Amino acid sequence: MSKPIEHVVVVGGGSAGWLTAAVLAAEHPRLSVTLVESPGVPPIGVGEGTWPSMRETLQRIKVSEAAFFRECDVAFKQGSRFDRWVDGGADDVYFHPFSLPQGYGEANLAAAWRQGHRDVPFADLVSYQPHLCKQGRAPKQPQTPEFAGVANYSYHLDAGKFGVFLQQHCVDKLRVRHVLAHVDDIVPTGDGDIAALRTREAGTIEGDLFVDCTGMAALLIGRHYGVPFVSQRDVLFNDRALAVQVPYAAPDTPIPSQTTSTAQACGWIWDIGLPTRRGIGHVYSSTHCSDDEAERTLRAYLGGIDIPTPRRIAFDPGYRARFWERNVVAIGLSAGFIEPLEASALALVELSAAWLADDLPATRAQMDTIATRFNDAFLYRWERIIDFLKLHYVLSKRTDSAYWIDHRAARTQSARLRELLALWRTRAPSRRDFPRIEEIFPSASWQYILYGMGFTPEFTERASDAPARADQYFREAARLTARMLPQLPANREMLDHIRQYGMPPG
Question: Do the beta carbons of residue 13 and residue 163 sit within 8 Å?
Answer without folding.
Answer: yes
